Amino acid sequence: MNNSKNNRDSDIQKKIDYEIRMRDGACKLLAACSQRDQALEAAKSLLTCNARIMAYMSELQRMKEAQVMQRVARSHSDRMMSLQSYTMSSDAGPMDDRLPCKGKVAISDIRIPLMWKDTEYFKNKGELHRCAVFCLLQVGGEIYDTDMVMVDRTLTDICFDNTIVFNEANPGFELRVELYSCCTEDEFSAGSTPRKLASKLSSSLGRSAGKKMRAAMEPGGGGPITNGSGATLLLPVPSVPGPKYHLLAHTTLTLAHVQDSFRTHDLSISGNEECSYWLPLYGSVCCRLAAQPRCMTQEMMCGYLKVKQLGGEPQGWKKIYGVLKGTNLFCYHRQEDIEAKVEPVCTIAINKETRIRASEKDPHSKTQSISISNQYGGEDVTHTVSTESREDTQRWMEAFWQQFYDMSQWKQCCDDLMKIDMPSPRKPAIVTAKQGSLYHEMASSLPAPSCEGLLLQDNAVSAEIRALLSSYYNDSY
Known about the structure:
The chain is α+β, with helices and mostly antiparallel strands.
């Protein structure tokens, strides 16, 4: 148990270290970018890395606190626990300390309607306001981002075609959807903002002071500068130059919002029309939110059983290989039929309306029979199965009770298996129309000592960025 906890701590720490390296790479990308789209993608990566770091650190802190609480509770529970054998109830299974299975939660077809003014959309009047937007989606420690979309008054909806799948969700999950926006009218080239500020201030400071100020604002420059009277000027030097994304809207989706269909949900909007990153949101988001609990997709129990023939003699038992999966107990002739995709001999429903009971123990028998009752067309139909030992009976009963518990927690997600389309591999985000990706642009430029802009003169730093970029494109979450 301790080794498992230590391994999990180590895994989370490795994730934190990885995201820190990615964050450092994103910062260097921002400093190297000379084109707007590249800078926007790098800033998006920086925000995503920071969000993941915070999520992992929170998860690590929760784990540490849970470990302390477990150590305190263990001393008390050791005194209270007794080594009693498991006793099955004929009407209900034990629910003490039971945990529901995990599952996949997928969000896709995200559409956010816009509400432009008539003069802007229909008459095409006014300044063309354009923003770069993307969604950040989080369930627990899992965080993903959508592609970046350019939005202006020619669009009536913000559309994200990504399918985001969370693989370790609990039925009590909270899926937070955050919409980030960045105005694209600013200048995004490396160092452009401080240089632009320096140019505006130099005329009022005078030629001599202006030259000193511009030198201080250049990369590598530093230290305070003074005006003619000797007073120190405190100039804003951003830690990470480049575009900045701002939270524009958000919402939180839970199990209650899961439906195997396209639905509309309310959005909480941040900011106002005075913000540069503002977009006229309608106040809602449309999406498809689906879930697949593992009890619906994986074999929860399997093994050989004997099934009593309906309407047959007491000796009319048939040996089958049973598989408990989803809302059915599938009965095959033999185990090999599963891989051969042979149709099962029969299928017994196991759903929220099913009643299962273990028969009274027969002192002359090594096994107990299990009765599975369902209603078909208003009539009760009971299937009776038995195992080869009482231990097997106990395991099957435990599997049935766990299945019922999972269904009670995942609710409508266990009525039918919802379809989830697995996301296609993400394409490299930082691309340009003529020059290809920033990675290839930098890599091809490294040997030329006189290049400016994207080329960094320090070969060691360039090699580090090249490695980070390669990891950025090859690794996936």
